[in-house]
Amino acid sequence: MHFRSREAKAETDVSTLRIVKLEQDLLAKNNGYAEANRRYLSAHGIFALNLVSSPGSGKTTLLVKTIAALNETQPLAVIEGDQQTENDAARIRAAGAPAIQINTGKGCHLDAQMVGQAMQQLGLPNDSLLLIENVGNLVCPASFDLGEAHKVVILSVTEGEDKPLKYPDMFRAADLMLLNKCDLLPHLEFDADLAIEYARRINPRLQVIRISATSGAGMPEWLEWIKDGCRNAVAAKPEASLG
Ligand SMILES: Nc1nc2c(ncn2[C@@H]2O[C@H](COP(=O)(O)OP(=O)(O)OP(=O)(O)O)[C@@H](O)[C@H]2O)c(=O)[nH]1
Ligand SMILES: [Mg+2]
Question: What is the pLDDT of residues 147-182, one digit of tens each?
Fold first, then answer.
């Protein structure tokens, strides 16, 4: 058993309170920037999605395929978040879309101020689609509102069915889950129904699309979901409601 003096315990309590206060201040500051982003996006009819997942679930692959399918008809741009490298932004530019890479260094998530600056640099056209790929991490990005319309969580079938139960905040914060790499199901013991049941146990209103970014299965449903969101964002623009 471990005994601590009353003084040592009081000191720990004070440090814990200080950390909690710092976290609250950080999140409050972020929420201010997120609200500014949201106002800007809504005033310009821009539909913004924040793609969140663990590393390697297929976010960039999915974005490349999404760009290939929509680029001709839908103005769009991408903000890429990674701790290091320009790799993902280079993949997006090669697919034909403008992209800004944010390197967060030791940071494990994008924040709303970084995204606001990147939005200004991109000069997003009215009525466009903004796709934000967050840093691969199932924990920190859940707490940071970027001003997006929806968080989209990508869970790939190689990760295990229990991830929604282990990382509930992310699945609670998301409105849509893309169950990716479904082409691999025949080779795995992954139970897709069980994974979806776990995710809905955490978040009963979570929409789910089974998808394979590489084979293209499920892509039409995902693209329809995006197009619906873009139409709604344009229709909800303040000037649209006046006219
Ligand atoms: N079989 C299969 N492989 C996929 C699928 N989607 C992505 N991959 C592969 O998964 C690996 C990681 O894909 P990325 O798109 O780089 O994943 P990411 O989520 O962007 O990774 P980070 O940005 O590092 O977090 C690559 O080897 C992809 O080819 C899929 O639907 N099926
Ligand atoms: Mg990526």
Answer: 999 999 999 999 999 999 999 999 999 999 999 999
Residue listed under structure tokens 């490349």: 64
197 lies in some domain: yes
229 Cβ inside 6 Å of ligand 1: no
Neighbours of ion ligand 2 (CB under 5 A): 59-60, 88
* pTM for the whole structure: 0.93
The answer to whether position 1 is within a domain reads: no
DSSP string, 2-22: ----HHHHHHHHHHHHHHHHH
Ligand 2 centroid–CA 57 distance in Å is 8
Three-class secondary structure of residue 71 per DSSP: coil
The answer, yes or no, to whether any atom of ligand 1 lies below 6 A from the CB of 59, is yes
pLDDT digits (tens, 9 = 90+) for 185-199: 999 999 999 999 999
How many structural domains are present in the chain? 1
Q: Which domain holds residue 83?
A: 6-242
Q: In CATH, what number is assigned to the domain containing residue 208?
A: 3.40.50.300
